[in-house]
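Running this now, will post back.
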Amino acid sequence: MTIDKKFVDKFVNITSKAALASSYLVGKKDKIAADKAAVDSMRTELNNIDMKGEIVIGEGELDDAPMLYIGEKLGTSNGPEFDIAVDPLEGTNFAANNLPGALSVIAISEKNNLFKAPETYMEKISTRIKEKNVVDLDYSLKKNITNLSDYLNKEPKDLTACLLDRPRHNEIINELKDLKVSLKLISDGDVSGALLVTDKKYNVDIFLGIGGGPEGVLAAAALDAYDCNFQGRFLFNTDKDKIRAKNMGINDLSKKYELSEIVSGDSIFCATGITSGDLVSGINIKNNEFISETFVTHKSTGLKKVIKLKQNFR
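Update: finished.
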């Protein structure tokens, strides 16, 4: 089974409208309002789609999120069944402070083909290298860098690693410096960081570290279309996290997930720029039109491109 390519345009339109809605709050120092604008727009547009959609990764559980909550049913109830993962505003701080890299993100798969990720941290790693036993979450950092250097026929000093600039990564950052690896430290934007391995033009050879579990699943949907490597392991630090994971059907709490276990079958991924960043440009409003750029993948058709749209305001 594959997802009809007509849905590509529909979901590009959804993230574009959500990005536009959030763009009016860029630089207003109110990340909650910027996020709410994107959520409201995305939910309205999703309900206009002829589908039976269910949110598997969203704004949180029903108690915490009145809209786009995990388990929420969306669409007209006519059409195919989809699992939907959303991050209406990836990089809330970027939007609030008018910094590069804020995105509106969505991924869809056929029913039961997208991992239902709990709201917890995930240890993750991604590269362009698909071959087994080159880069692995279970290897030491030094072994991964050495293997990657050998495989790419580069010196470690010619590699670039991307990771979140967080205190929890200080040890990794220091070790990468000792190995002479170049660093691309990002302050936010866990999805976009993982996607920088998809093309040599971004000059990122490996993405690694600890970030959000839901963001890991979203990134995996795009990486799958690029035939990249991704592995993730959830980190359950509290009893509450462990109970929630068990309730979601996760029995092995230390399991390392391969990309094929996170997303399977056909999928569509869309990430529209709110503010300009490495992947795409942000929303540009001119008179009665707005211009958006969306990083799009559709696995079954091989679509992997940035789509630029010019639309009139309704």
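DSSP finds nine helices and 14 strands in the chain. More later if anyone needs it.
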